[in-house]
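protien #1 (seq + structre)
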Amino acid sequence: MVHEVLEDYGLTPWPKTSGSRGFHVYARIAPRWSFSQVRLAAQTVAREVERRMPGVATSRWWKEEREGVFVDFNQNAKDRTVASAYSVRATPDARVSTPLHWHEVADCDPQDFTLDTVPDRFAEMGDPWSGMDDAAGALDRLLMLAEELGPPQRAPTGAGKRSDGRRQPSMPLIEVARTKTKDEAMAALDTWRARHPAVADRLQPADVLVDGMRGPSSIWYRIRINLQHIPPEARPPQEELIAEYNPWHGYRPPDGRGRPGADG
């Protein structure tokens, strides 16, 4: 559907594996638009995909409000890192973020694209993105669609914000654990389920939120439970975390020359 929407609005889409579990879709444009316009255009693509596939795709940023495949327009931000085409990702099997032809996407398994397999693939079939530079498009039609769709949904303000400026959850969430590894996170989830079997049996898959969080040098994991499908009188309270990993313990930010900061 992302392919269809981009083509409908005059852009040529180019897919690649992320090197993890998802896909990235690029669209070459002429350098004529501001950052805010490019971001709005990307958000508009996500909203239009969601509009055409309700319940299947979502552009909602907050995980507890999502239902379906997340179309992540928010990578179009000033503080985001980019996994470029053919970059090797930090996975045990050394996966490569690999450009694809569109006919490959439906049956693609990201595990098939690794440091061992991609060089032979490239030698055999070349670069699926070789024509990208000749396909620069325009954002005018997407920006017109943005006006037609109206203002995008924003994060809650006022009553929706906590005193620390973070989002006040609109869903009844409890936190279970913070861990260094995903295996530890899932073990903590099993412990919580054993403590609350009646509640665990009533949870839907989307109610269990396994969040990969960005730490100073690696990803850590947080487990949360959305109790929206549990009657208020049956909801367990927020308890002491089963595991409480602190990714920032002992971390010292680098000095201005990129070296670890010195004490004192």
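ok now protien #2
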Amino acid sequence: MCSTAASCLVLQVLLYLLNTDQANLGGKIRFIFFGLSWPICAWLYYYFLEMKGRNYAEIQEMFNNRVPARKFKSHVCEVGIVCQGEKKLQEEA
């Protein structure tokens, strides 16, 4: 629902900005999108989490330990060590 509302708002603003009778920005509209993209890219770089190869228990442990988002990739979880030890025991048996 929020996505639809945001899309309608952006469409109405874009029509106003592109219309030759009103703002008449034309191709200059790209500078607006470029300017909005930089803060979003910076936010994604610092706050978007790397969860590749992690299970739910490891992710929960990292959130509980308040591990910073930039250290998710290199963080070694205790849950992961226990799971690996259990797998080795099962393989040996």
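The mean pLDDT is 85.
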